[in-house]
Specification:
mainly alpha; 13 helices
Length: 259
């Protein structure tokens, strides 16, 4: 990356982060407060009020899924509208336009990074399983970043041509969250025994699920992810990156005209 491109990327990233917390007393501390408040609410509802999830260290389990979901959902939403939000820059300045959605995506990595900084020592202290599974964590994270980068690139450029995409994403995020095993496990899923095919659908058709399961194995269960999960996150993660990059390059030629 050329020096001027790196400088532009850094400026875009800095503007994204500062813009989100401008005027806030606590600033980036909110990146940790929001998921912690959500964690406490879900813990109260599912383990106290309904006692629906009999699981040790449930807050730790929740934070693992939340760390990935906050990055995944936040990144695709902000990236999808990033080119439109920076229309003046895109139309007037010549530069690699991929850095616009990537900078937006990277701004969402801050809360996930803070949560990971808490989850890794928690896994070392409290996990009952094999702590060596943490050695696999960098690979799982790289696959997850590849997945999100590919989606960010594709959705950002497609939204220039089809402006409904960002609205569709906003409508889907909440139900998508509940069909992803962040609040529960498939081991306690009511239909796991009677309808195992439904579990397979929720595992492999809902493509964020294997990434969440791999992180839970490494950071919560202390178990090695199955070869199916590892193969899935590798193929889907880097496949998403390749497809997203190709889609962006194919459609970026007329971006300035469409904006």
């Amino acid at each position: 990356m050329a020096p001027h491109t790196r400088e532009l990327f850094a400026n875009l990233l800095r503007r994204e982060v500062r813009g989100r917390y401008k005027g806030s007393w606590l600033g980036v501390v909110w990146t940790l407060i929001n998921p912690l408040v959500a964690m406490l609410a879900y813990t109260l509802v599912f383990t106290v009020l309904f006692a629906a999830v009999p699981m040790p260290r449930y807050p730790q389990f929740l934070l693992v899924g939340q760390a990935f979901w906050l990055f995944f959902s936040g990144a695709i939403i902000v990236a999808s509208s990033s080119l439109i939000g920076n229309a003046d820059l895109v139309k007037k300045v010549r530069f690699p336009r991929q850095i616009v959605p990537i900078a937006s995506m990277a701004s969402q990595a801050l809360p996930a990074g803070i949560m990971m900084a808490l989850l890794i020592p928690a896994a070392l202290i409290w996990n009952d399983g094999d702590r060596l599974t943490l050695l696999l964590l960098p690979f799982v994270l790289v696959c997850g970043i590849a997945l999100v980068t590919g989606l960010a690139l594709a959705l950002s450029v497609l939204n220039v041509y089809f402006r409904d995409i960002e609205h569709i994403l906003n409508a889907l995020i909440l139900p998508w969250f509940f069909v992803t095993p962040i609040l529960y496990t498939f081991k306690t899923f009511p239909l796991a025994t009677s309808k195992p095919w439904l579990v397979d659908v929720l595992k492999f058709v809902n493509f964020p699920t294997p990434f969440v399961l791999a992180l839970q194995d490494c950071l919560y269960w202390g178990a090695w992810p199955s070869w199916k999960i590892l193969a899935y996150i590798t193929v889907v993660g880097f496949g998403s990156l390749a497809l997203g990059w190709w889609t962006f390059r194919r459609l970026e030629r007329d971006i300035a005209v469409e904006l």
